[in-house]
């Protein structure tokens, strides 16, 4: 199974890199960690929305609407799907303290990028999750001289107890064990791709020479 970090495919060079990975690797299934910005893809892809997306498209996918502009994309928004025999759940969006206590339908425009308490509560109710995808990191994974982790991701790891949690957004590879879960922050797709063994959940990173100069 192919696993990709942030793609930022609104950038033409990074879009070319993303599509070249699909063409070169010919994956049967793909997991992607947000900031995708390309919604017609060559292989079935389960992804979470990040903070950089086409939010009209994301809202349509949340609602289950069929769009002529999308193909092979499956949004995980406090929902779960079975992928190669694994139960994969995801929380879409990033955290904003001023928006968290609102209801989802109160978010408009670019503010639709955020998750709310409703989204977290729905995600916490997911059961039998093997892999959990999130755009925000838990505490204890990354440091910029401060910990950028989000307490609500900490709470979700405690509630869901997945075997593996994959994190986007931060554009750097880091690993830790948190609350009994192996947590991995992924490098972006233009720097590295990952392969996942569905039997063992072994995740392996691969450098590639498709990087954009941008």
Structural overview:
The chain is an alpha/beta fold and 214 residues long. The chain has a single domain, classed as Purple Acid Phosphatase, chain A, domain 2, CATH 3.60.21.10. It is built from four helices and twelve strands; from the N terminus they run E-H-E-E-H-E-E-E-H-E-H-E-E-E-E-E. The chain has helices spanning 12-25, 55-63, 117-124, 151-160, and strands at 2-4, 30-32, 40-47, 71-75, 79-83, 86-91, 131-134, 164-167, 174-178, 181-185, 192-196, 203-207. It has a six-stranded mixed sheet with strand order 4-3-2-1-11-12. The protein has a six-stranded mixed sheet with strand order 5-6-7-8-10-9, with helices on one face. The radius of gyration is 16 Å and the shape is globular. It comes from Natrinema versiforme. This is Metallophosphoesterase. InterPro entries: Calcineurin-like_PHP, Metallo-depent_PP-like. One of its GO terms (molecular function) is hydrolase activity.
What characteristics describe this protein?
six-stranded mixed β-sheet, 214 residues, Calcineurin-like_PHP, hydrolase activity, Metallo-depent_PP-like, 4 helices
Summarize the structure.
This protein is 19% helix and 27% strand. The protein has 214 residues and is α/β, with parallel strands linked by helices. Strand 1 (2-4), helix 1 and strand 2 form a beta-alpha-beta unit.
């Amino acid at each position: 199974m192919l696993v990709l970090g942030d793609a930022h495919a609104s950038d033409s060079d990074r879009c070319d890199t993303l599509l070249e990975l699909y063409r070169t690797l010919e994956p049967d299934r793909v997991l992607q960690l947000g900031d995708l910005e390309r919604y017609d893809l060559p292989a079935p892809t389960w992804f979470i929305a990040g903070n950089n997306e086409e939010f009209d498209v994301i809202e349509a996918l949340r609602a289950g609407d069929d769009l002529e502009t999308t193909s092979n994309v499956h949004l995980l928004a406090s929902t779960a799907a079975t992928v190669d025999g694994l139960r994969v759940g995801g929380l879409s969006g990033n955290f904003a303290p001023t928006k968290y206590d609102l209801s989802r339908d109160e978010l408009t425009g670019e503010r639709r990028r955020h998750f709310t308490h409703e989204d977290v509560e729905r995600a916490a109710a997911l059961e039998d999750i093997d892999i959990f995808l999130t755009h925000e990191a838990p505490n204890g994974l990354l440091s910029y001289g401060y910990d950028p982790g989000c307490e609500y991701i900490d709470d979700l790891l405690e509630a869901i107890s997945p075997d593996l949690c994959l994190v986007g957004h931060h554009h750097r590879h880091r690993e830790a064990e948190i609350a009994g879960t192996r947590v991995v922050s992924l490098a972006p797709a233009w720097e590295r791709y990952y392969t996942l063994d569905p039997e063992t959940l072994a995740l392996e990173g691969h450098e590639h020479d498709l990087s954009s100069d941008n």
